[in-house]
Specification:
This protein is α/β, with parallel strands linked by helices. It contains 29 helices and 21 strands. The strands form five sheets. Strands 5-6-4-7-8-3-9 form a seven-stranded parallel beta sheet, with helices on both faces. A six-stranded parallel beta sheet has the order 10-15-14-11-13-12. Helix 17 links the parallel strand 7 and strand 8.
């Protein structure tokens, strides 16, 4: 009897997909996906072996039962769930042998459950070394059938030349991505062809470049003739000139307000069209600023061509097609976060890895590149290096405060960045005469009251709370104690007040520093990292409209920044301040600053890389993925708050449990809090758990107040608060 891969319940046999057809189609798609990194034959072989286990009588019986037919026809009782991936893994390990066999075994074993460790006490029976024994038993029962397919399985003998022991793990993930996406797409085409049809229809990059060029011509015509706008045009032209250069690693070092977003996109589009790249991926550090960039790009390219992939996406902007494209990044322009981008490169789950092959042959803009977490510096640098060297990716490091990333030597796009910084110097940064002499919050508040339009940026949520309480009515508070929806509304309000020239005083944490397009005549900044001071200065006289220079006052706050990286950044600034030639508005200053700052970090991820690479090809994929987290999700927990339109969605959550739509709607109404604080407030009733059966682990606001000005009122609780969260 024929062997089947998939069946549609309650459909006639004509709606069954044969295993032959599925293996062929998956192998063909995977081969096409892997061809850009010279690995098509590897992906093809993986496609042929990944579902060999489906030929087993147990799995065939399972498909029959699902279609309501009689099991007796197959004379095998079968189980409700049948493991079908271990047989292909065993075939690869035992028949192909060596590193080629081990590579294909990882792919087959993990194509649903995720890439396994080779051997690990943590994953136990899920490790590949353990699953091979089960796979060998499965393989015995289908040996005759596998022999029939053996002519189709053309196993490669060696990896492409660029694959070394150090980058083997990333190459396997790229192959895994090709297999997983091919498998999903072929299955979807059989099960849900209507959904498959919704994946097409995007504009080409050449068409988007034409739209972009038209937009930029009109923008230039509408702009006033000012020194700032003249310099922005020069930056734009430098980016266009550099776009014809070869694929590789570039830096765009331009002061804040110098037009990096649009100039960087000009480089990316021109370079992509010139070198036949597949897409542009714009990577942004914070969800708090991603909306601004995505909005600009949607206005230029159209909503349908810009895919946002991040946790804080407004569900109103999500369509069926954008949701599908976010699964595998098969769209011309992707806007995402550092977390999504870098964690996916070290991931093991199929859902996270599926998109990786679509990073190949793309242009990636890393916006605010200095915000790569120091504890993951080396793995991030290693990924950047491998993407550019081995996978045809051009990466642009875009920032006003270019970090000294160890081992990377990007080609600078702007010919003379120091001259550019001098020309665009629109502020005077006034450093404290004594970096060890603190000001009291009352004194800071008194100074802020002297200005009608002023922004003050502090180092922690607690500092923001304490200073805000001393400010006059009408002052705006911004911190991560406010949910994403609340913050977005306040930032829009601030921009409108500034645009109308009305009084506006703002006390904020660092969340406004990187990329938020606001323009104050006066900015105060609590002593912190030198890069943070420079970024704060970018919110001052941004458009150069003042008759003189804007004023940026750096002050020493009443208490030091929280322990950890913020404290080390402030200490580095103090050390730099002792140098006679320290100027926070010169790009070369930051080379020295980041060298000192990184030297203070206890761990930059070097041991993690050694652990991942030490025993190729015996890779701990799953354990490494669990360790590589840009944000420690065990230290913080999200709390859903009652603000704006969240109430009816909370009621649905209580009634129906956590559906995808409900959780997407509520994502914008969450506040991250220290886990220890959440536990304490659950115990005394200020927070509550949703029904543990319907929504285990989900926490919502209960008796604690959510203030429409300052957000979740945690300080009234008199509990210890983690100031690290901004």
């Amino acid at each position: 009897m024929p062997k089947y891969a998939h069946s549609l319940p309650d459909q006639p046999p004509a709606k069954w997909q044969t295993l032959d057809d599925h293996l062929f189609a998956t192998a063909e798609k995977a081969r096409i996906f892997a061809a850009p990194f010279s690995s098509g034959e590897w992906a093809d072989a993986a496609g042929w072996i990944h579902d060999l286990g489906k030929a087993a009588p147990e799995f065939q019986a399972y498909l029959v039962r699902e279609n309501g037919l009689d099991d007796a026809e197959y004379d095998v009782p079968g189980n409700a769930r049948v493991n079908h991936s271990s047989a292909g893994a065993a075939f690869a390990e035992d028949e192909v042998k060596g590193i080629p066999g081990r590579t294909l075994a990882y792919l087959a074993a993990g194509h649903h459950a995720g890439l396994p460790d080779w051997f690990s006490d943590q994953t136990g029976g899920a490790a590949l070394s353990a699953r091979l024994e089960e796979g060998r038993e499965d393989l015995k029962r289908i040996r005759a059938i596998v022999t029939q397919w053996s002519n189709q399985i053309q196993t490669p003998s060696k990896a492409p030349p660029f694959v070394k022991s150090g980058n083997y793990h990333l190459w396997v993930r790229m192959l895994y991505s090709c297999l997983v996406d091919a498998d999903f797409l072929d299955t979807e085409a059989f099960i849900n062809p209507r959904q498959t049809s919704g994946r097409s229809g995007f504009s080409s990059l050449a068409e988007l470049k034409s739209r972009f060029d038209t937009y930029m011509i009109q923008k230039a015509a509408d702009c006033k003739k000012t020194p700032v706008n003249d310099m922005r045009q020069k930056v734009l032209q430098a980016c266009r000139d550099a776009a014809v250069n070869k694929q590789g690693l570039y830096s765009l070092t331009v002061p804040t307000g110098g037009g990096k977003t649009l100039s960087g996109m000009a480089f990316a589009l021109d370079h992509a069209v010139c070198h036949n790249k597949s897409r542009v991926i714009y990577v942004i550090p914070y969800t708090s600023i991603i909306e601004q960039t995505a909005s600009i790009l949607r206005d230029i390219f159209g909503d349908e061509n810009v895919i946002e992939h991040h946790s804080n996406l407004d569900p109103e902007k999500e369509t069926e097609r954008s949701r599908l494209a976010a699964e595998n990044w098969d769209a011309p322009v992707i806007v995402t976060t550092n977390v999504q981008f870098f964690e996916s490169l070290y991931a093991a789950k199929s859902s996270r890895c599926r998109k990786l092959h679509n990073i190949v042959n793309s242009v990636v803009i890393l916006d605010e590149a200095q915000l790569i977490p120091p504890q993951w510096l080396i793995p991030s640098v290693d990924a950047i290096r491998e993407l550019t060297n081995s996978f045809g990716v051009t990466i642009l490091l875009s920032t006003a405060t270019q970090p000294a990333l160890p081992g990377l030597t990007p080609a600078e796009i702007v010919p003379h960045p120091t001259e550019l910084y001098e020309t665009l110097r629109r502020t005077d940064i006034i450093l404290p005469s004594d970096s060890n002499l603190p000001m009291q919050w009352a004194d800071v508040a008194d100074e802020l009251k002297q200005h009608e339009q002023v922004l003050c940026i502090v180092n922690s949520r607690r500092d923001c709370h304490d200073l805000f309480k001393l400010m006059p009515e009408g002052t705006i508070h911004l911190s991560a104690l406010m949910c994403g929806q609340h913050r977005s509304e306040k930032i829009r309000e601030i921009k409108e007040l500034l645009r109308e020239g009305k009084p506006v005083r703002v006390v904020s944490t660092q969340l406004v520093e990187a990329g938020v397009d606001i323009d104050f005549p006066v900015v105060y900044r609590a002593l912190g990292g030198l890069d943070s001071i420079a970024q704060a200065a970018g919110r001052c006289n941004r458009e150069g409209k003042l008759a003189g220079k804007g004023q940026v006052h750096v002050f020493v706050p009443p208490k030091d920044p929280p322990h950890g990286l913020l404290a080390k950044a402030a200490a580095t600034t103090r050390e730099m301040g002792a140098l006679a030639d320290c100027d926070p508005q010169r790009p070369e200053t930051f080379t020295r600053y980041f060298e000192l700052f990184y030297s203070r970090a206890n761990d930059t991820g070097n041991e993690f890389i050694k652990y991942l690479q030490k025993d190729t090809p015996n890779i701990p994929f799953r354990t490494a993925a669990a360790r590589f987290k840009f944000i420690d999700d065990t230290a913080q927990r999200p709390v859903i708050v009652r603000y704006g339109d969240s109430e009816p969605w909370l009621e649905r959550l209580q009634f129906a449990g956590p559906t995808r739509e409900i959780m997407r709607r509520l994502q914008r109404y969450t506040v991250n809090m220290p886990s220890r604080m959440v536990d304490a407030m659950l115990a005394d009733g200020r927070l509550a758990s949703v029904d543990e059966k319907k929504a285990p682990g989900i926490v919502v606001q209960a008796c604690i107040k959510y203030d429409n000005v300052t957000g979740l009122d945690v300080y009234a609780a008199q509990l210890p608060v983690d100031d690290l969260i901004v």
